[in-house]
C-alpha cells in the first residue's frame, strides 16, 4: 500500500513541478516518506517517473470509463466529456506522459511506458466505439484534445466531439 501511496504522491509532484525541476530530495519531501523508504521502492529518479506514469495510467483509464453509458457512440462521447474533466482537474498543462517523453526523449524505459499507455488508450477507444477500424482516428482526436487543451480548452473537446459524430 505504501508503494502505491508514494506513486500517487510522485504523480502529483511531477504533474505540478514537471520532470526536470524536482530533485530527488524534493520528491522525497513531497512523498512524505524518508529518503530510504523512497529509494527502497523506487531506486532512481527514472523509476520514480515510471511509477508516477503507471499510477496515472491506471487512474486515467478508470476515469475515462467512470459512469460510462455502455458502448458505441455515446460511450465515446462520454469518454471525451471525461477527458475534458481530466484536463480541467488534473492536466491543465497537457498530457503528463507526453511531457515525460519531451523531458527524456532518449530514455527507452520512459518511452516504452508512454508507448504502452498510448496504445492502451487507443485500444480502449476502439473497444468502446465497437469499431476497432476507427481506433486510430479516435486516438488522434483524443491526443489532439490533450495537446490543444492548454491553448483552446473546451473548444478542443467540442471540435473533437463534432468530428466523432461525423466519423461514427
TrEMBL record:
Highest taxon listed in the record's lineage = Bacteria
Q: Residue limits of the HTH tetR-type domain?
A: 1-60
One Pfam family matching this protein: TetR_N
What keywords sit in the KW lines?
DNA-binding, Transcription, Transcription regulation
Say if the entry is tagged with keyword Transcription: yes
| PROSITE patterns named among the record's database cross-references | HTH_TETR_2
Known DNA-binding region: 23-42
- Which PANTHER family does UniProt cross-reference here? HTH-TYPE TRANSCRIPTIONAL REGULATOR YJDC, TRANSCRIPTIONAL REGULATORY PROTEIN
In its UniProt entry, what is this protein called? HTH tetR-type domain-containing protein
Amino acid at each position: 500500500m505504501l508503494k502505491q501511496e508514494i506513486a500517487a504522491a510522485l504523480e502529483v509532484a511531477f504533474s505540478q513541478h514537471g520532470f526536470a525541476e524536482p530533485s530527488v530530495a524534493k520528491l522525497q519531501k513531497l512523498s512524505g516518506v524518508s529518503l530510504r523508504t523512497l529509494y527502497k521502492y523506487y531506486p532512481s529518479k527514472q523509476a520514480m517517473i515510471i511509477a508516477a506514469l503507471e499510477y496515472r495510467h491506471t487512474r486515467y483509464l478508470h476515469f475515462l470509463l467512470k459512469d460510462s453509458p455502455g458502448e458505441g457512440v455515446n460511450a465515446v462521447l462520454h469518454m471525451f466529456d471525461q477527458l475534458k474533466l481530466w484536463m480541467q482537474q488534473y492536466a491543465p498543462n497537457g498530457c503528463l506522459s507526453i511531457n515525460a517523453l519531451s523531458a527524456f526523449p532518449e530514455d527507452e524505459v520512459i518511452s516504452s511506458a508512454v508507448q504502452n499507455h498510448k496504445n492502451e488508450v487507443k485500444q480502449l477507444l476502439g473497444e468502446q466505439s465497437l469499431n476497432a477500424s476507427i481506433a486510430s482516428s479516435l486516438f488522434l482526436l483524443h491526443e489532439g484534445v490533450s495537446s490543444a487543451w492548454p491553448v483552446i480548452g473546451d473548444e478542443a473537446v467540442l471540435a473533437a466531439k463534432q468530428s466523432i459524430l461525423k466519423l461514427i
